[in-house]
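Both lines are quoted verbatim for reference:

——
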Amino acid sequence: MSLRFRDYFYFHPKERTALVFLLMLNCTLFALREGIEYYSLNIEEHSGLAEFPSFEHDMEASFSKLQEKSTLSDSPDKVEPIVLKKPLARQWTEVKDKAKIGLNNADREELEELPLIGPSRASEILKYRELLGGFYRLEQLLEVYTIDSSVYSVVHPFLEVRDSSWRKVNIDEVEFKSLLKHPYFDYPLVKSIFQLRDKGRLESLSQLKTLDLMNDSIYVKIEPYLFIEKP
């Protein structure tokens, strides 16, 4: 039995179904592969990954410049000196060469020029100086708000307290409220002083030592601010 050419293309219905399924599967896989390749190329174009060699070159150039700067800064003869601003430079050079400043005579500008004393601390010093009537020893600066031992150790070499440069009050004539404003005199102490004064005019400041509220530490603090006018 001879076969004709068209007989080679004759398929059983089940065979035709399998053939169509294999053809569709092949087309699907081909389309999927092409889609993945196109998507990958699109991502590289938009994210800049395609230009990564150029980016890497720029990074290497920048790093080389940083290394050059680092090498120059490490060289002793290339290091630039630190230049202080004028106020701070004056604090440590010009002020040091001048004569000491009178603590009770210094104005705001003079105080601000001192090491570690800016506008804020200068203001606090002036306020406390006014309340005290002046300082009779430099250590009283430690009683000023914001001035601790570290600040005092730096600033005190530039200062001095000149003789009788603080204000004194006549213990026999000072008013109650006026004496009470002084930082060293609290209400009980002022009251006891006036009770003693009511007994008669004081002849010596040492009479204050007889008060129950008085002790040596208090007396040493207040004595420089008091005087008695002898008849």
Summary: The domain at 86-160 is CATH 1.10.150.320 (DNA polymerase; domain 1). Residues 13-47 form the longest helix (35 residues).
